[in-house]
Amino acid sequence: MLIAAGGVVGASAVGWDLFSPGLSATAAGAYLRPCGEVRISSSWQGHKNRNPPSGEPGTDYAVITGTQIRAAANGVIVDRKDSTTTATGRYLALLADDGNYIRYLHLQSSTVPLGARVARGQVIAYSGASGFGSETGYGPHVHVSLWIGGTPLQLGFTNSVDFENYVEVEPSQPPAEDPVPLHQSTTYAWNTVVPHGVWTPIRVTPGQYYLATTGSTIKETGDITIYLSATGVTHGFQLRVIADVLNGSGAKVGAAAQPVVEIPATRDTAANSQTFGQYALPYFLSGPLRLYAQIRALNPGIKVQEVTVKKNFWQS
Ligand SMILES: [Zn+2]
């Protein structure tokens, strides 16, 4: 059904097919939003812009009191407050397995005890509006704050980062047609810090993720090249392509990961020096499939600046 011959620039050629044992894998996303796709009533930047600035900048998700809150990642509950006092009200803190620290504020209640191991997507609390000694210290919402690589006590409460830059962006709405036109390339400025140690999808253009899609009757032969520039690379980053396997209705029923290519840091480790990465994949697709690429940062603070995706393909 699928025979894709992968060749990687700067690395030995690889071959793959979806039916080889061990190649089947589920695409790992980044953090899960607490309550799905809901309105953001105040952004992290909005918190920072307040006068005075928020002491714990985060993202406010507008949800009615009593909404389920799901864990962003696998990890351990390392702090829990059950009183409505102070600006935080009730809260939970999750130390994610990647070493990052996440707090959920203004809760109605928590459903997991201190020290509990939780799974990504598990319900850990119900949202509220608690704070300043009241159940209604705010309008109803959940505030999520994130610190990279340490606790807020170590890093400073004001040194949180924008959780929205780290949420899962695995695409859910396949495009009607291939997003990258035949024999063309797209270039865009991403300017985003990618999460450390988490596979994060790479967009083709803003809002588009898929490199190729094929239906049950169309066969597609092509080649894809991705170029990236990034700063803050002290160790390196990895790139790979995921093939989603679809059923006849276009729903995802499986996924297979292409072998990983590792891009080391450039020798010049000055803070603002750029590291360039290149990934190339000749492929042959047959059957309902779609491809997208992912990046995984091997050190914290890697900011991808510009992405160029080139694609040639032929259908039969
Ligand atoms: Zn807030």
Descriptive notes:
It is a single chain. With 316 residues, the protein is mainly beta. The protein folds into two domains: 3-30 and 169-315, Mitogen Ypm (Jelly Rolls, Sandwich), CATH 2.60.120.510; 40-166, Glucose Permease (Domain IIA). It has helices at 44-49, 152-155; strands spanning 3-6, 14-17, 40-42, 59-61, 68-70, 75-81, 90-96, 101-110, 117-118, 123-127, 142-147, 184-193, 200-202, 212-214, 219-231, 236-246, 252-257, 261-264, 274-286, 289-297, 303-315. Strands 3, 4, 5, 6, 7, 8, 9, 10 and 11 form a nine-stranded antiparallel sheet that branches. Strands 13, 14, 16, 17, 18 and 20 form a six-stranded antiparallel sheet that branches. Strands 12-21-15-19 form a four-stranded antiparallel sheet, with no helix packed on it. A hairpin with a 4-residue loop joins strand 7 and strand 8. The longest helix has 6 residues, at 44-49. It is globular. It starts with a strand and ends with a strand. Mean pLDDT is 81; it is low at 1-29. The structure holds zinc ion (ZN). Residues 42, 47, 58, 60, 143 line the site of zinc ion.
Descriptive terms for the model:
21 strands; disordered N terminus; six-stranded antiparallel sheet; 2 domains; binds zinc ion; 316 residues; Glucose Permease (Domain IIA); mainly beta; Jelly Rolls
Name the CATH superfamily assignment of the largest domain: Mitogen Ypm
Measure the end-to-end span: 14 Å
Q: Biggest β-sheet: count, sense, barrel? A: 9 strands, antiparallel
**Helix percentage range:** under 10%
Please state the CA-atom Rg, rounded to the nearest Å.
Answer: 21 Å
Order of helices and strands: EEEHEEEEEEEEHEEEEEEEEEE
Low-confidence spans: 1-29
**How many structural domains?**
2
What CATH architecture of the largest domain would you give? Sandwich
Overall pLDDT confidence: 81
- Overall form: globular
Distinct bound molecules: zinc ion
Q: Based on DSSP secondary structure assignment, what is the total number of beta strands?
A: 21
Structural class: mainly beta
What's the CATH class of the largest domain, please?
A: Mainly Beta
| β-sheet strand percentage | 35-45%
CATH topology of the largest domain: Jelly Rolls
Number of discrete helical segments:
2
